[in-house]
Structure formats: C-alpha cells, structure tokens
Amino acid sequence: MGRLRVRDLAVMLAWLGAAGWAIACKREASSADAKRSELAPVPAARVARRLAATTGFDLAASERGALLAWSPPRAQGGGVWLQLHDALGAARGAPRRVAQTDAGGEVVELAAIAVGRRNGLAWVESSASESRTRALLLRPDEPTPPEPTRIAAGAKIATASRTHLAVAASRERLRVLYADAPTACVDRASAPCIGYGFLELGEGARAGGRPWLAVPQPCTRGVPTLAARDDRLYYAVCSTREELPTTVAYSINVQTEYARADEVLRGCDPLGLLALDVGALLVADCAGVRRGVELTLAAQLPVERELSEREVQCSAGQMRLRAGSFELELHGARERLESLLPDALAPPGARAIWTGRALLIAHPTPDGLELLAFACAGDAVRKIP
After folding, report:
1. Are 86 and 203 in a shared domain?
2. Which of 163, 188, 218 is the last residue of a domain?
3. Is residue 283 part of a domain?
C-alpha cells in the first residue's frame, strides 16, 4: 500500500457516509461574471470546434446518446461549450456555451459526464497569474445555466494535461476528484505533496471538506481516475517514487463501509479507469506496453494483465473489444473506452464511448475537434457517415 494512510480511508468513508447535506455553491464575484456573454444556443455552422488546449474537451454517454464538451481559445469566444448527439453520433439541436471563463483564463483541462438527465462538467482554467478548478451541473434545457462552483485555485498551469481532475456520476450526483494546493506529506522525505479532495453536486450531495489525500510528487503524465457504480467507488492517483510512477488504487463500498487500497502498475502511467459490471479496469502505459488491473472489493489482490493487440470485433451485429486476454462485450452505455482501442482508431488524447448503438470517438486534430461514429454491420465494423 506504499504511503497509504489509514486515516485517508477513514476520512473518505466518513465523508461519503455522512448525512446528505445540500452543498452550497460558491458564487464567484468578479467583473467577468458580471459581464458574462449570452449563453444561448448558436447555429452549428457558426461554431468551429477549435480547442484552447488538446485536453480541453470530453465525450460522455448520456440517456439519449452522447454529450460532447469543449473549450475554444479566448480569441474565438472561449468558455465551455456543449453539443448533444444521438446514439448514432448525429447532432441534436444546436451547440451552446454554458459557462464563460474568467478574464484572461484558458481552459487547459475539461471533464464531462451525464448525471441522470443532467450534464456534469468540471474544468481547470489557467491565466497568467493563477489556475481555477470549477464544476457545473445543469439540465440540457435550462435557458440560463447556473453559475459554476469554484472548487480550488492555485498557481498557473503552463502545460495542458489530464493530471488535475476526474469525474464520475452516482445516482443523481456529480462527483469530482480534484488536485488542490500543496500540503504536508506523511513522510517528509517524499515532499512535495499535493492535496486531493472530492466535491459533490446534485441531489443528496454531501458537503466537501478540506483535501484529505496527500499525494507525494504527483506524476507528470499519469492521470487521476475515478469511476462509480451505485455505492461502489473506485479511484486511483499516481505519484513518483524512486523516479518511477507508482499508482495507488482505492476500492470503496460506501454502504458496508469497506475500503481497500492497493499499489498497482508500478513504473506505468495510468491512462484511465473503466467501470465494469463488477469492479473497474485501470489501464496504464508501461513503457509503450498497455497493461491493466481489475479493481474489486474482493479479498484477493488485484491481478495485472497485458492488454496488447487491441481490437474492435463484430459478430452477428454485436460489438466487442478485445485487448490481450481481456474481452468486453458492448451492450449498455460505456465510457472511457479509448484505452482499450487500437491507436489507429483512437489516437493518443482521444475519448471514446459506446452509446448502446454506436462507438463514438472524439479526438483533436489541427483543424479542431473531430467526432467519428462506428457500428457493426454483420461481422464488419463500419464507419457511420
């Protein structure tokens, strides 16, 4: 378990199991908020999906298809934009800007997820003087989206990455795992440490406290990951130890107040966490070799496996993903599939989901954000026009 503190799990369970307090949204008082641009839908022909940063977008499965979120450069309007798509990838309605960035800020990291019939967003925006982490939960048909909740603030971020936050949905709540300010380390020799915390928005949201998890020397490439299924929560954070990335994965059953932590995939950069019917699959890049580990609440230790030779297969109209000995048949909606896809289909930086009818893949290109759709035609994988 490495530098795991027993107190970390105890605090986490206490927070998750606390009475359902309604979270108070912090309103940011700034001149930028007072002069917010109109957030009404805009004709799709007028919206070029250019990105402020290659990590300033996300793709999520929703009840009626998919949700695509992105942030263009401030010179092209900035803010956070949403576009709904049907289950085959066709646009539904017009794109709309649902939040504006503060003066001088560019979104360098963005995460999105469907929360029941609502859309959940979290992002990091950075300016010349500081960075800000914010979150928003809204209905697609809200004429005036609520003000984003400010989660954390820190030093400016010079390089865009997906190393500061992760999101998940549990029932009607948006959960955000986020990096905050420097904090004291359990072992002083492992400094510097960054504090990580949780925030919830939505019905029955629990009030978040101070960041409670101290992560020594967070990895510069490995992403924090988060997945939730009902009362089961899985997440992982990466730190650098002896010049090697080391990931600690947490598995928690909130209802039974059972939790465990395991050090996994040493020497690897975590890429993403996929929620399974039972447990979750954490995928990582290990010096160019894709590996994974299944996280469960069972007593035995997690088993790592190689995920090489990644393929998308169709049989009698049914799509499945195969990576090494791991196989996933796609039925209901699934997210964070990009780490199981071949690079030719989902290049580095892409996001991929299964809507229940099609495989959708979003990835940045020199001309902007591209969205592709694939489905099975008998035993063949076909691109949807």
Report:
1. yes
2. 218
3. no
Report CA 41 to chain centroid distance, whole Å: 25
| Residue whose structure tokens are 């002083």 | 188
Residue 56: inside a domain, yes or no? yes
Q: Which of 220, 201, 84, 97 is nearest to 149 (CA)?
A: 201
Structural domain includes residue 137: yes
Total number of domains in the chain: 2
Same domain flag for 43 and 143: yes
Q: How far apart are CA 335 and CA 332, in angstroms?
A: 10
The amino acid sitting at 42 is V
Residue 190, pLDDT score: 80
Token pair recorded at residue 137 = 């939960």
Domain that includes residue 375, residue range: 309-385
Q: What is the pLDDT of residue 211?
A: 75
At which of 218, 248, 278 does a domain end? 218
pTM > 0.85: yes
Q: Give 253-303 pLDDT, tens digit per residue.
A: 988 888 999 999 999 999 999 999 989 999 999 999 999 999 999 888 898
- On whether both 202 and 336 belong to a single domain, the answer is no
Which pLDDT value is given to residue 48? 61
What 3 state SS string does the chain have? Answer: CCCCCHHHHHHHHHHHCCCCCCCCCCCCCCHHHHCCCCCCECCHHHCCCCCCCCCCEEEEEECCEEEEEECCCHHHCCCEEEEEECCCCCEEEEEEEEECCCCCCEEEEEEEEEECCEEEEEEEEECCCCEEEEEEEECCCCCCCCCCEEEEEECCCCCCCCCCEEEEEECCEEEEEEEEEEECCCCHHHCCEEEEEEEEEECCCCCCCCCCEEEECECCCCCCEEEEECCEEEEEEEEEECCEEEEEEEEEECCCCEEEEEEECCCCEEEEEEECCCCEEEEEEECCEEEEEEECCCCCCCCEEECCCCEEEEECCEEEEEECCEEEECCCCECCCHHHCCCCCCCCCCEEEECCCCEEEEEEECCEEEEEEEEEECCEEEECC
| Angle value at C-alpha 27, between 21 and 30, nearest 5 degrees | 165
240 in a structural domain = no
Residues of the chain below pLDDT 70: 1-48, 207-210
- Which of 232, 330, 340, 324 minimizes the C-alpha distance to 281? 340
Q: Which of 211, 68, 75, 222 is nearest to 152 (CA)?
A: 211
